[in-house]
Amino acid sequence: MAPPGPPWRLHGECAVAFVRAGPDDPLPHGFERLPGPSVLIAARYTDSPVGPYVELALARPARRAARFGLCVTTMAVDSSESVAGARSNWGFPKELSQLRWRTEGHGSCLVSEDLGLEVKARPHGPEVPLAAPLWCLQQRADGPVQVPGRLRGRFRLAGLHADAKTSDRLQFVDGHHRGVVVTKLRLEIGAARRIGQS
Length: 198
Known about the structure:
By secondary structure, this protein is mostly beta strands. The chain has one domain: Beta Barrel (Acetoacetate decarboxylase-like). Helices cover 6% and strands 63% of the residues. The protein is built from 1 helix and 12 strands; from the N terminus they run E-E-E-E-E-H-E-E-E-E-E-E-E. Strands 1, 2, 3, 4, 5, 6, 7, 8, 9, 10, 11 and 12 form a 12-stranded mixed beta sheet that branches. The chain is globular.
């Protein structure tokens, strides 16, 4: 059975850390890396077109031709249906992984034993509503695409700690980072748009 097509509407919560880019996470051919921090995302979706799942993603600022956005270079989830849908619809490089999400007081924690990574988030300060567009650039099987999205939720500033000392792929995210946590998350991912391969 084919995975559900776009748009996908997801609900849940996430923690986002802004980290210094590492050297060993290359972009697809034809994509150019832009200045700025990478974005490490730990998310728990309680509702989606393929059911609940947990996700870990790393994205980098990038451009392709005249398009700008985030390029997701690492993406792990605990749902095979999510893997199939993300790869076919948008070219997200999802892989199946063993992920655990737990709540710790007012914070949250995501653990991936096979990736050797633990991410803890501790929010602070006031909670504010926010809505923002989201653009990703990905390499799908039929060529480069731009992926539109829209994110809504309740945002708080947060301190995030990534323990990646034993990770082969993500050791460069190890340490403390600034970021945000988002509760009452509503994320919509639209249909991908082909990018001219000039």
